[in-house]
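YM 10:42: Inositol-1-monophosphatase sequence, as discussed on the call
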Amino acid sequence: MSSSNLHPMLNVAIKAARAAGAIINRAALDVEAVRISQKQINDFVTEVDQASEQVIIDTLLTAYPQHGILAEESGREHGNQRSDFVWIIDPLDGTTNFIHGFPVYCVSIALAVKGRVEHAVVYDPTRNDLFTATRGRGAFLNDRRIRVSKRTRLAECLLSTGFPFRPGDNFKTYQLMMADVMPRTAGLRRPGAAALDLAYVAAGFTDGFFEAGLSIWDVAAGSLLVTEAGGLVGNFTGEADFLEQAECLAASPRIYGQLVGLLGKYSKFAGAGDKAAVRQAMASDAAEQAQEDEPQASVQDQPAGDAADAQGSDAQQPGADKAGPAGAPF
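YM 10:58: structure's back
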């Protein structure tokens, strides 16, 4: 879709995303010079995040001064907090990738009107890939219409996910999830930028995505891309009201249903029976691990008397006297 046919609000979001992308690309030329702060363990923010967010906010509020802002780094400090129009911004999704020079990160901007996402932009500055969507008008990558994958068999599918990395995240549960999913698919990837993961599902580059612990700015724009590309998005149990539930599952419709069947029991909204089964599986895994870690008894570990008894019993084995010169067996 050409820019002349885009909704004016989407055009402003594109302008903001490209301005942020220019800041990110300039900083990427000398990423070791970027100042980094740590919000919590394994959760970083850089001066690039902050500068990117500021240029996005300035661009949006210049065009729409009465709109509200919900941004990852500054929260609701800017704009009109009572507005029905709220811009949801992640200025650099994939900060950890960025500070290591790993080129998988993006800018994510969505506009929610009365709580429903209506416009979305995900911009990958390293590839100059621009993903856009307006509710009811389809999803696009660089002006080309995109659709979710047509695969219907999970065994043929490539999925993406995100691993737990913050204090308090439940890595044991994720291990069980991956153990359920990986043998049933063609592959599982962890790129490290949820907004871009969702854009890739929309474009059919991957067949599905799941992750827990996400915030609304991680998924708002990408979720509209997926639904406008013909896919489904919800929490792990398949419920569509997921934006602020810290669970996201997205895929083409046929694959989505199969993933809900696999992942639903790991949802915080799962039934009591499913939760009990997961706890039992975790306990079983822990017991097996403890058994594997337990040192095996050996002759060297035995008391001297027991070792001597063991050697004596060996000497009485049939054929023990059948030795040639220098004790060499026949």
